[in-house]
Amino acid sequence: MSLLEVKDLSIHFGGVKAVQNVSFTIDAGIVYSVIGPNGAGKTTLFNLITGVYKPTSGEIRLDGESIGGKSPDELARRGVARTFQNLQICMNMSAIENVMVGAHLRLDRNLIKAALRLPGLTRRDAELRGEAAELMRFVGLDKYINARADSMPYGALKRLEIARALAMKPRLIFLDEPAAGLNPKETIEVDELIRKVADSGITVVLVEHDMKMVMNLSDRILVLDYGKKLAEGSGEEVRKNPDVIAAYLGAHA
């Protein structure tokens, strides 16, 4: 059984059909990329699967269980995490506190305990801080563990956002344009990090415009155009597909 199954998924905003009858499956342990021109429906597809939008029609199944229309919090508890095109970092917090926020679903939310700072909660906070520090080392941000987020360069903040998503201990992580706005060195660092995440056993679903990164990382690629599925296959299959070349990659890709 595939980890994620999407069948005939659609969403309409008034008369605009943003995603139309899209179907695909994703096996566990792979890097699966979604590409297409601007406005093709890539982020909308992410928003449907991760609970930001409710589908107009179609099915989304995780491990065979229907998850269409479930909230992001519910999906997080089922092991689904994501990042966004635009940074969602709390700039008035430290870097490590941002990563700790990602573990909020595992925190004890009992307000009385929090107010009294009972020993069990204090120990858990210390454990979470240790986990967050380890994740920062994992994404290559060792030197920023004690830094404020607003003092960090943009490329480091993109990796910090990935660390925060990893703090949720996901099985499936959606990365929406993780290399957007990065310079070549930073892009290589994110490329290497995504492969490291995949090698750790987490299934990665990627939206990215950097075709070199997509072709380097992806086990399978889905191509969208005007909200519809245009093609799907390996990097080589997609690269040679004449419809993809015409719609997105360009004649010299």
Q: Tell the overall outline.
A: globular
Helix content range: 25-40%
User: Which whole number gives the mean pLDDT?
Assistant: 90
The CATH topology label of the largest domain is Rossmann fold
Order of helices and strands: EEEHEEHEHHHHEHEHEEHH
Could you give the count of β-strands? Answer: 10
Question: How does this structure look, described?
Answer:
The chain is α/β, with parallel strands linked by helices and 253 residues long. It has 2 domains: 1-79 and 170-253, P-loop containing nucleotide triphosphate hydrolases (Rossmann fold, 3-Layer(aba) Sandwich); 94-167, no CATH class. The chain is 38% helix and 23% strand. The chain has 10 helices and 10 strands. A 6-stranded mixed β-sheet has the order 6-7-8-3-9-10, with helices on both faces. β1 and β2 (16-26) form a beta hairpin. α5 (119-138) crosses α6 (154-166). It is globular. The mean pLDDT is 90. This is ABC transporter ATP-binding protein. GO terms for molecular function: ATP binding; ATP hydrolysis activity; L-isoleucine transmembrane transporter activity; L-phenylalanine transmembrane transporter activity; L-valine transmembrane transporter activity. It comes from Zoogloea dura. Keywords: ATP-binding, Cell membrane, Membrane, Nucleotide-binding, Transport.
